[in-house]
Structure formats: C-alpha cells, structure tokens
From TrEMBL:
The keyword Lipoprotein does not apply. The chain crosses the membrane at residues 12-32, 39-58, 669-688. Keywords: Membrane, Transmembrane, Transmembrane helix. Signal peptide: none annotated. The keyword Cell inner membrane does not apply. This is Glutamine amidotransferase domain-containing protein. InterPro entries: Class_I_gatase-like (IPR029062). It comes from the Bacteria.
Amino acid sequence: MNWSISFEPLISWPLLALVLVPLALLALVGLWFRQRGGVLRFVALLALAAALFNPVFLNEEREPLKSVVALIVDRSQSQDIGDRTRQTDEALAGLQERLGRFKQFDVRVVEAGKSAAAEERTETRLFGALEGAFRDVPPSRIGGAIMITDGEVHDAPPGAPDFNAPLHALITGNDHEKDRRIRFENAPRFGLVGKPLDMTYRVISTENETGPVDVRVSVNGEQVSVEHATVGQPMPLQVTIPGAGRNIIELAIDREPGELTDTNNRAIALVDGIRENLRVLLVSGEPHAGERTWRNLLKSDASVDLVHFTILRPPEKQDGTPINELSLIAFPTRELFVEKIKDFDLIIFDRYQHRDVLPILYYDYISEYVDKGGALLIAAGPEYAGEASIARTPLMSALPAMPTGEVVEKAFYPRLTDLGQRHPVTRGLDGSATEPPHWSRWFRTIGVQNPQGEVVMKGADNRPLLLLDRKGEGRVGMLLSDQGWLWARGFEGGGPHVQLYRRIAHWLMKEPELEEERLTAEGRGMVLEIRRQTMADDPGPAQIITPSGKTVTVKLDKSEPGVFLGSVQTNEIGLFQVANGDLTALAHVGPVNAPEFADVVSTENRLKAPAEATGGSVRRLASSTAPGSDVTLPSIVPVRSAGEASGSDWIGLRTTDDSVLKAVSRVPLFGGFLGLGLLLLAMGSMWYREGR
C-alpha cells in the first residue's frame, strides 16, 4: 500500500485566499490582543479552512515493472569452428534456465550473424543487435546485457555502449587457439590482359612465427606457380592476367597441425582484365557506297586502333606519273603482311579482289596468321564471285565457303537462321523478333557452295548471308553482301548495323561474352547465379562444389534461345566451383576476404573496454583447453543501481524501481457527516464562548 495526502479545494485557489486571508488576519489580531474567545475563533477558522481545502488520503495500488535483459547470441560463421557451437548452445540453455528463476527480469534473446543478406554476414555486429533489443525500452528499465560470442565483434565501441547497465560477455573457444592466415596487402582491381600485374600479400600467424611457407597461386582455378613466402613479411607477387573480364586470383597455404580452421588459408582478389587497344587492319577495294561503314564503326570504338587502306590505284592503272608527284600513299604491303602481321587482332578485306597489289605469297602469310590464332573477316561484294576473287588465291584454305560465281540481285530481308537465334553474335539482334524483321531490305547476295562453320544469317532464297568459322586456332567470318550500308544510311528505317558489325568483330577477336559455349557464375548477395550459353538444346544440370566441399546439383532453365540460367541460395561465404559438361567456372559469393574470417581466434580483448566501462565483465565459458570441456556459467545476482555488477564467480543485473499504477483509493478527511460535525462543533464552541 502507498498512502499519500492530496488537497482538492472546493473553490478555486484565488477565491479561497480571498476568503481565508482576511479571516486569518482577524483571528491573529484577536490572539495578539488576547481577546476573549480568540483561541476558539482561531480553531474555528482552521476547521473552516480544512473543510474548504478538502484534504484527501490516497492509497495507490501499483504493479512493479520488470527489468529488460538482452541475451545476445553470436551465430556468425566463425562460431561454427571447433566446439564453439556446442558451448554457445549449452550457455544459452543454462542462462535461460537461471534467468527464468527471477520474476523481476524480462529476458529477450537475440541471435545475430545468421542473416542470409551478404552485407550482414561480412562482420559480426552484436552491438547493432543489442541496440535493436533495447529500442523500445526506457533507460530506467534496462537491466543489462549478456553476450555469448567468440569475442570477434567488429562493431564494439571503444568505451561504454549507449545504456546505463552492466554488459557481460561470455567467450567461447579457449585461450590457447592457433591459427595462420593469408591476405592481400595490395591487389589492384584492374589489369591489362597478357601483362604482369604487381600485387603484395602477407602470411600471418597467431604465434608470431617467422619461418618460410609455400604459397600456391591460382588464376581462374588453375595453379600457375608456387611462391616461397616468409611468415609475417609483406611479399611481392606478379600475376599475368589471362583474359578480359572478371579474373579470380587465389592464394592458398597448407593447414598446419592444430590449426583452428583452413577457411582463412585462402585469399581471393577479383581483377577485371582490360585489353589494350585492339589493332585492326581494314583493306578496302575500289571505293563503293558502303566503304566508310566499317571505317566509321571501328573509328568510333575507343578500344580499337584502326589502320585503313583503300586501293585507289591498282597496278593496271599505272600511268607513269612520278611517285613524288602523287599525293597517294603507297601500300606498305611488306610491312603490314610480313613484318607486323602478328600485331593485328583482326584483318578485314572489304570488297577486296586480287590485283597483284599483294604478292601471291602474302596470302599464304595471311592463312598462316589465321591458323595461329588470328582473325579474318571477308565483307564480300561482286568481286568475290569474279575471276579476281581472293578465293582463287592461297587464302582459300582459310575461307569458310567458295563462290559459285553467282551474284543474286534480289530484294530480301536478312533473317536469322535457327543457329543464328542461339548464336551470341546474332541472338536478340534488335528487330529480329518480328516477321518480317523490323529492319530494311538488302538487294544483293553472293552465292557460295559447301559453306563450313555456322550459318547464322540467311539472305535471298535462304542462301547463306553470314558465316562464322574456326580455322586452326583462329577465326574467320564472311558477310556475303555489300548492302549493310543501307542500314547505316537509314534506308526504310535502317537496321542494327552497329550492333551486328561490332559483335562480328568482337567474336572474331575472341571476346569472352560472345563465345557460343560459355559457363559463367556470379555471386549476388548470398545467391549464386549461373549462366550457360550453348548451341545445344539442353546443357543439363550444373554441379556446384561449395567452399565447405559439399556438392550441389542445380537445374538450368532456358531463359532465351541459347541461354540457360540457374541459381542457388547459400549461407556460405567463399569460392564456389561450378561445372557443366566440359566447362567450369569459379564464383565468389559474399564479401571478398570478409572480416568475419580475417581473424577467427577467440579473444577477450575486443569486449573488455565496453564491458568494464559499464561495470560488467568478460570471461571464458570453457575452464579447460581440451576439446569437449564443460561450460562453466557464473551465478546471476540482481543488484541495485548503485551496487557492484560483477564478481569472481557471479554477474549482476540491475533491477528497476519503475511500476504501473493499477488503482487509487480516496478517503476525504472532511467529507460527509464527520466533516460537517467537526465544523459545527468548532463554530458552535466559538459562538457559545462569544455569548458569555
């Protein structure tokens, strides 16, 4: 029971003062001059004042509130090491049982670090979870917090947290753990393809060892070297970037006996390979309507260095004019096709015919260039079907089709073949989804026979229009019409000439995105996404090896012709290996070299400062270093706000004085007949004394 007195005056305070103050002055004057009945008048005035003030006794019925205690459980991946999960579960069950004995505590259990979102798994953020647990709790009702963790907390403040209550940390693991890890010190994000890239790394040990260690270096899953490093010292590394696009550089060291985990015995760097400017040689025959189409396209590409020659003065048109009087540049045939031919990534013959400008031997050099990995594109016109066709030179061994001598002059819409709808060069070409295609017509097709390679576009009378073929280690393309300039000029609405020409050129130069058979994988958040390009009808499922060594099979579903997609949700962070048929790919899911795995040795140091600043404590759960040792929990003691909050074998949690008002009982002192009787008695006594 909580008794208190309250005044509930019958009239307002100003009016009450107006009535009682003059009467009080008169009563005091009577007492001062010792008038007869002065004391009774003063007593009557007091009775009147008490009646007007209306004092009331209040009895409040209150229910005490509970102190809120947060029990923060670390469920991050580093807690899966060794006995830590068992220790955590035993400590959680024991604390819940002990806290359940105290009715004055409201316990809130929060498990942190197990979210599927990648950004929430990069670090162990227990204080963020603690803040969320107390977000709706007044400061006076916070009883304290207990964290069960390995101590590797990445958002620990340098001092006290933002609440006035003890913080206690119970550390899993043991104080004699051993671990060795490797990390990149300097890893550029970009590198030139085919050029060495300078990097640095370091091997770190918890025992401060300084001996040598072998480091395996792998690029895109293939081991390229074994480096000899000194533990604790920064080590230089040179890696040659093999291809354009994403490249995965991996460093790995062997697991030592007694080491906690080999999860951090690997370090990953993602390097985007950038090609140096591609060198293209464009040789045009006599000037024609579409001559500048290829030139303008290649010149507009900042990644292409173009060398362009147009044959304006073939040998049969020599007229004896001295060279020094001509403004034309002599065609440097030997320099281009003998001395520097290997420097070019692509050679284009645009309506070119053999006119003895190139010695016949040079065509052999071009064929050899293709066979050893070069790229050749023939943009054919009527010359390809004539007597001076380059198909009648030694270059014929590199060509995908021989001319029939027929030139078909007939309007047609270029269309994709069944292969062309799946081939990355022509797949999804703007305007190809309708019938007829949403682009302009062409009016000439060069007839060929026995085409090799893949026919991805067809022309008039379903004749081959675009051929793509592989010759030895190189590639050859053949466009059997010179009418592409109609698209560039906007005839009948034009067409996607830039898209088509650029894809042809980049496929010939082996751009990875345009490979017919390609398997790629990429981590997006905590989802592994798989993309398979293929000319087959069904590539079958993909097999995945997770960082922990588990094997998972994922079905690939068709998303568009020639493209199959699959995905899998995962809770593991690390390097995934994906295989489909003969193709393999690597992908890293989650943050690269996440702080969660940078240091996995359990520690008391990170939480010591914030715990001691609140009067709390940090202690280990396991009393022994042996695996499977029992968990020792401290006793829990409720303490007042000003008391100690920890001892050698106990931890304290604060209780609150806050309560909730349930009901109020009122007892008026001058209410009813009792108040009236007392007032009449006082007034009557005064009247009686005055009458004598």
